[in-house]
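User: Run a structure prediction on this.
Assistant: Running it now.
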Amino acid sequence: MSKIAIVILNWNGEKLLEQFLPSVHEYSKNADIYVADNASTDKSISFIKQQYPEIKIIQNATNGGFAKGYNDALKQVDAPLYCLLNSDVEVTENWLEPIINTFKNNPEVAIIQPKILDYKKRDFFEYAGAAGGFIDQLGYPFCRGRIFQALEKDKGQYNDIREIFWATGACLFIKSAVFKELNGFDEDYFAHQEEVDLCWRAHNHGYKILYVGTSKVYHLGGSTLSNMNPKKTYLNFRNSLYSITKNLPRKKAFVIICIRLLLDGVAGLRFIFQGKFSHCFAILRAHLSFYKNFIKIYKKREKTKYMPNYYATTSIVWSHFVYHVRKFNILVKD
């Protein structure tokens, strides 16, 4: 049994596999590589069998999205450490060693992410994860190296190892025992922000999450849904409300949800003024789905010790749109 299993979730991604599997195959010699296929209808499976017969294939019966796809696949993977890797990620030489060493030297750490750089603009951080994830007091996620659409240039400013709030699902390392203890991803999320919820639950269980900037990968991003796709807007707004409902003390969650619903309305109006009517409708649909599923989501609350100081700043929305903050080190003093 290998110490680490790299599991790549695929859905009709033959072209991406052709482009990005070579680096994973070349630079991950000490790991077992799996492709978990979400019922693809293209030639993904035949490509892997022909070009990479040593890569293990897990064929899921349906396309259950990111959450269910990984939950189903990882039941068939035997390794103490999982690496959940997007199919549009190029890895680099020796990318695994800093991660493995950090786990070895920090037994209380359950989840790690590397530095995520942009595949096309290689000296800039990439939207999905950048240099580690955080949230504000109202539950809005953001990253070191990326605040909303403002991406920082990588100048070595985040070549450190530090504790973060959430790790990106684009490249997420997690101890298999912890993944099982947390019952994996919440499948009601389908996709987007399920990793934020997983990490939040890990914190509530007493685990630590780290960013390791001495390991880097390059992420293409937007290969499934672009940052400005209305479906992504829908999932992000709805799933964020899910996470607040599940992972904060009841009174605090109720207050924050009320504020968030109001701010979401403001965001909807902003989309209207920008002529992005489909995004405004996506927010409305997100709220309707949240109301419809509220009881179901509320029942998932766990009897754990909720994190008292979970947020890095009071309001990322206010700081960014009113004070025009674009960089993490201006917003949060390390």
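Residues 250-273 form the longest helix (24 residues).
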